[in-house]
Amino acid sequence: MKERIYRIRAGIPHTIALLSDLHGKDGRDALEILRRRRPSLIAVTGDLFLGYKTKEGDDLADLQPAVLPFIRGCAELAPTYISLGNHEWTASPADYQALKSAGAVLLDNEWARDQETGLLMGGLTSAMVMDYRRFRRKHAPDIPYPDDKRHIDGLILHPSTRWLRAFEEQEGYKILLCHHPEYWSLRTPMLKDHPIDLVLSGHAHGGQIRLFGRGLYSPGQGILPRYTGGVFRGPHGSLVISRGLSNTAPRPIPRLFNPREVVMIDLH
Prior knowledge:
alpha/beta; six-stranded mixed β-sheet
């Protein structure tokens, strides 16, 4: 596990921990870094769980028991905010409640002002979660959701963004948790064009295998993806991407030259 530090000029002195893509694994090594660094706030940008169609209808928190202790450990250290990634498409209302009961604030296409720091925190839910919800409203529970067809690079699903305007109109420093880095400038909603100070993402897994400083593949971006980790600047703010906390490939593909990481963002 690697600790990676980025500095963002913000006019406010806070340290934000960015975590992503736990995928149901043990997060105790990440918690050790957080205990040492004591961030002002912890942002978890989705894919806490590993959700496939074989798990549809089950409570993921019961099937993946390492997740809730990890979130509980985060919440004991600092205010912890969670957005929903594509693997949360099978998460149940009971899973959502369990995350809240563990001490986290779940931001499901909504925003909140952190009482300790005054920072505005928003959470943009993955388009796959939204597509699943639309599917379930139209079809009976016994009809399986065709995630094998939807969870591919060639199919463009769109997140729900109506709530973003109200978030953007608020006074203060705005941080948006958004699992998908491709939403920054490759796909709608093109977040780099929105008046948001800081967008936090994961999902790309660092490109899984990194050669000559570049990842080879990312879901949502394909071969030689651009947004796999690091800091990217836009006209209104910045994007910071985590390479993730676990090996998130569905098959046993190793992470080569691509260590798991906890990202610390020093606002200064």
